[in-house]
C-alpha cells in the first residue's frame, strides 16, 4: 500500500507548523496568483511537439521524423500541434495556451547537466549559484515565511532549493511507522543538524486527498499524473502553496524517438488538463510554464532520433496567459537560419519569459528580479504580450 | 569496536561492520585496506561462471530477426535468467564480502561509467558488463578500463554509438541518399566520454572535438549489427564495422590522428586517459567519494598527482586514497548512499541470504535501484543527494520494518558497540537503551545518524 505525504521543507527554526495553523491566518497573505513550472529534463524536441509541418525545409531535415498534416492539429497553416498534444487544443481555443518556438535559456553549450543547472540556478552560468531562481523569487513575495513553494517528486530540484522554506510531495511505497517510534527518532537526531532538519520537515507531513483516486492509472503515468493532481489540490487551497515545480524525465531522445515522445507528450498534456481541472476557479489566476534545458538538432540523426541542440519549445498555459497564439520570433529552418548550421536559432529567451511571469504575473518589482533573482539579466527584457493584463 | 580508525576503515572505505569484522581490522586498519588491493580482483567462481555479455546479447540479437515480439520475449527471458540472479548474487557477495574496499571501488567505477536498464536491449547484460569491463581494472590502468568500457556493446548501445555512421562512410552515404538526412553521426557517446568519463565538463574541449571523436568512434558496434545482411558473422561481442566508419584523419584536442580503423579511436582514448584534466576530474570525484562532499583541494591535488605520475595506475591511486590523512579525520563526514546503507544494514545483521525483493524494494524506495541512474552522469555523491525529508522518512520506515524481521537473539547494546561503538553519541546510546522493544532498539541503531554516515 502506498502512503502519501506532503512535507514542509525547513529553512530555519520555528517555521514548522504552517499547514496546521488556521486558514484565516493566510487568507489575506498567500495571494491569488499561481505559477507552476514543469521541467522536461533531457531536452524536448520542439519541432516534434509544435511542427512547422508546412515547411519544405522541415521535411528535408527530417525525412523520417517530420510529422505529416494528418499527424498534427493545424494552428495557423504553418505550425501544427502534435496530435499527441491534442488534449491541449481546448485550452488553445479558449485563449489559455501560448506556444513559443525557437526558445532557449542563455546557455549555448549542449551538456544536460550544465544546461539544467543553468536553467535552475538563474545566474546566467552553470553552477553560478547554489540555490534556485524560483526559491529566490519566493523570498521576494513574502520573505520566505509562508512556504509558498511546492516541489513535487522524489527530490527537491535545484530550481526550488534555497533559503525560502518550501513544501515537498512524493509517493512512498513503504509502510508508515508509529508516532512513538518517530518521537524517539526525533530525540536521537537532535544533535545532527542535517538529520534533525530533514526529520522535522518530514514530521510536518499532511495528506492530500485526491492522490488516492490515481492508483488505477498505469504505473508509467502515475508519478506525473499524481503530481499534477496533488499540485492542483494544494495550489487551490486558500492556505496552500502558490508556486509549484514539477518535472518529467525521458526527453533525451537520441534514438527511435517517435513512439516514446508521443507517449510522453500525451502524458504531459493530460497532466496540464488535470491541473486545469483541479485548480477550478484558481485556473484563472494561474500560469503554467513548460520548458527544457535546451532544444534538439533541427535535423534527425542516423537513428531516427535527434541530438542535443539549442532553440526549443516553451509552452505557457493557464487562465492568466494571453493564449491562443504563437509568440515570439521564428527564424525558419533554412540552412542560413540554423544556429551553428544544426539547431533552431534561439531567438526567444526563456529568461525574458521567466521575468515576465515574475513581474507581470506574480507582481515582483523588476529591480528585485534583476538584483536578486536573475542577476546579470538587465539586457534581457521581460517579453510583452504573454500575460493577460 | 573500539577505535575510530576501525570505524572509518569499515564504513568510509567498506560496506559497514559485520559482527566480527573488527578482529580483522583492529590495530592496522590501513593495512587491512591495502591488502585488498590486488591486480585482478575477480568475483568468486560461483558468480564468474555466469554467461558472458556476448552470449546474453547474441541470444537477444538473434531473436530480433524473428520479429519484435520474439525480441521482447528474449529480453524478458534474459532478465529472468541472467540479470536478476546475477544482480542478487552480486549484492549478496557484497553483503558477505571480506574485501569490501574492492566492492566499493567496483560500485564507484560502475557509477562513473554508469549504464541504465532503461535501454532494454542491453540491460540484461549489465551485470556481465561490470564483471568484464569494470571489476578487472579497478586496481589496473585507467586507460585499460576506459578501452574496455567504451568498446563494450552495452555502452555502445546505451549511448547510441551503434546508431552512428560517418557521413562519408558507405552506410552514412546510403543514409544520406535514401533518407536525405544530413546528420548520420550520433554524438552522444563522444560527448559523454569527454564530459563525464575523462576530461570533465570544464576540461577544455569544444563541439569540434566532440564531432571528431564521434567520427573516430563511428563503426564501433557489435556483432549483431547488420548480421541479417550477412555483413557480420553474428555474435554479441564488440565488432568494428568499417562500413560505418568515417574515413580520414581526425583532430581531437589539437592532435591529429591518421586513419587507422579501430586503433585510431583506441589511441584517442589512451590520450584522453593521460590528459591532466582527466587526472583532476577523477581525483575530484574520488576525494568527494571517500573524504568529503566538498573535496579539499590539497587532497585532490595529491591524488591527481599520483594519477598522472603513475600513468593512471588505479592501484597506486587507491593506495594513495587510503593514505590521505584527510580521510582519517572526521569519521562521519559523508552520508551513505542508499546502496551503501541497505548493504551495511544487511551486513551488520548477517542477513546474507537476502532475496531480490529484500534488496530491490528498499533500493527502489530509497531512490537507488542498481543501474537506474537518471542520466549518464550516474548518481550524485553528496548528502544533499540522499537526505531530504522524504528520503530520510523512507530510510526510517524501511529500517523499522527490517529490524522487526530480525530474530531476537542480539542484545542491542553490544550490537551498537559492534557496529557504531567508537562514534555513537550519548543521545543514541540513551535512546537505544530506553527503547521499548528489542526490534525498536535495533531500528533506532540502523536509523541513527552514526549508522547512516560514513
At a glance:
Chain A: InterPro entries: DUF1501 (IPR010869). Chain A is of the alpha/beta class.
Structure notes:
- The complex is a heterodimer of chains A (about 400) and B (about 450).
- By secondary structure, chain A is of the alpha/beta class.
- Chain A has one domain: 3-Layer(aba) Sandwich (Alkaline Phosphatase, subunit A).
- In chain A, about 30% of the residues lie in helices and about 15% in strands.
- In chain A, helix 6 (about 135-140) packs across helix 12 (about 365-375) and helix 9 (about 220-235) packs parallel to helix 10.
- The radius of gyration of chain A is 21 Å and the shape is globular.
- Chain A starts with a strand and ends in a 16-residue tail after the last helix.
- Mean pLDDT of chain A is about 85; it is low at about 5-30 and about 210-220.
- Chain B is mainly alpha-helical and about 450 residues long.
- Among the domains of chain B are: about 160-275, no CATH class; about 340-450, no CATH class.
- Chain B is built from 25 helices and 4 strands.
- In chain B, strands 1-2 form a two-stranded antiparallel ribbon. A two-stranded antiparallel sheet of chain B has the order 3-4.
- Chain B starts with a helix and ends with a helix.
- The mean pLDDT of chain B is about 95.
- Classes of the chains: A alpha/beta (about 400), B mainly alpha (about 450).
- Chain A: This is DUF1501 domain-containing protein.
- Chain A: InterPro entries: DUF1501.
